[in-house]
Amino acid sequence: MEQILVIDDDDDLRTTIIEVLEQEGLTAHPAENADLALNLLKKHPYHLVLLDMVMPGTDGMTAIPLIRQQAPRTRIIAMTAFSSAENAVQAMQRGADDYLVKPFKIDALMLSIRQNLQEARFQECHKDTDMDDVFQGLSNVLRRQILIFLHRQGMTRFMDLVRALEVEDHTKVNFHLKVLREVGFIEQNAHKQYSLTNSGERAAECLSFISKNI
Amino acid sequence: MEQILVIDDDDDLRTTIIEVLEQEGLTAHPAENADLALNLLKKHPYHLVLLDMVMPGTDGMTAIPLIRQQAPRTRIIAMTAFSSAENAVQAMQRGADDYLVKPFKIDALMLSIRQNLQEARFQECHKDTDMDDVFQGLSNVLRRQILIFLHRQGMTRFMDLVRALEVEDHTKVNFHLKVLREVGFIEQNAHKQYSLTNSGERAAECLSFISKNI
DNA sequence: AGATGTTGTGAAGAATCCTTCACAACATCT
DNA sequence: AGATGTTGTGAAGGATTCTTCACAACATCT
Questions:
Q1: What is the CA radius of gyration of chain B?
Q2: Disulfide engineering: A200 pairs with which of A61, A196, B46, B108, CB 3.0-4.6 Å?
Q3: pLDDT digits over A136-163, tens only?
Q4: DSSP letter assigned to residue B156
Q5: What domains can be seen in chain B, in order of their start residue?
Q6: What number is the average pLDDT over the span A76-91?
Q7: What is the distance in angstroms measured between the alpha-carbon CA of B165 and the sugar C1' of C1?
């Protein structure tokens, strides 16, 4: 069952939204401010949060990165009555996945929720690569260089990659490309160009996270 | 020198922006439509593109993911005269890094450019400090289990660790402890209890980061 | 002292990972 | 067509990593 957290200080609206969500067969919990919400998120995993931007105490804009930090995989839909393009951009830059302008139709809300839950589920099933595969992919210097190069460069053809990495024996690169393909980090398009899959992108981001943090 | 690509069908605006950027000491190239821009991006790496949303031919909104795919690390600043929150959200969801509403002050443009270039540069510093040791330490299931256990548990004696991990042969654990010690992730105190060093703590945090994000 | 449990070493072999080599299919250019 | 460059396979062997085994120093308990 999909778990949803509704963060809004307006009692009526919060209750209404929760009733609608439960009618739609989703499980929804209320939180009347951001701090309570963060506590709930600490204890329990949610698939998605609906977050009001304007609240007493910690406001929504501030809360976004805190929620992101606490629950990196949880979808965040920002809601606001005072909308502007600048505000929307800021919310997205801080990590919101969508941004709804009040008053919205229930249909619009449900559409956004359904889409975000589905994308999350898609990424989830793409995540079935286990930690072991990840480390299998990352456990070799050349493979890490390939990942980083493709992360920076995007689509690249085989020999260009070989030359960029300054490897004399191209079959060596081939061997490691095969490993990366088997692990699901890279793929080839119709023109035989290599690029990262999204799980490969995430792996490359992990690499940069590690190199930053070690 | 920072390379910038200005994509706009309005000749006057394009020229003006390029002049300003060059006065600021940046290198800027023009492209009057999205297809020309994609060709330029294929040939040459840019740090940042300024992208008009409304153009004949491939429009800006369509171009964003294409640019993203061709040049994943290039910053994209979307520009539009017809702004709405919905439009801004869509641009960000497709991969824009910022979204400016025309007419904008030159100062606002330069601020966004400077910020984006700086963040990009920050992410760039990928210095391959001995990542090899790190991965040496993390490249084995049992070693990862040991790290995670010590991260949760703190100081632990040898046989307690062996039993907690349910390994039948204690010398196996010993072997991996030795590796972890050589890499500098763990240490022993006077009572022969094992615990994480601070670099070991950081490694364990990387592990949990990875398991959250993959 | 003797029995039991803890902590550790070193070496041999197994398993895995990586490199190298020989070669081949295919595209592109002259 | 022939030459050149690109992309790829498979097998052999070398290198590294992991497991297992035999054993030993030391503490603790009875």
A1: 26
A2: A196
A3: 888 898 999 999 999 888 889 999 899 9
A4: B
A5: 3-124 (3.40.50.2300), 131-213 (1.10.10.10)
A6: 92
A7: 35
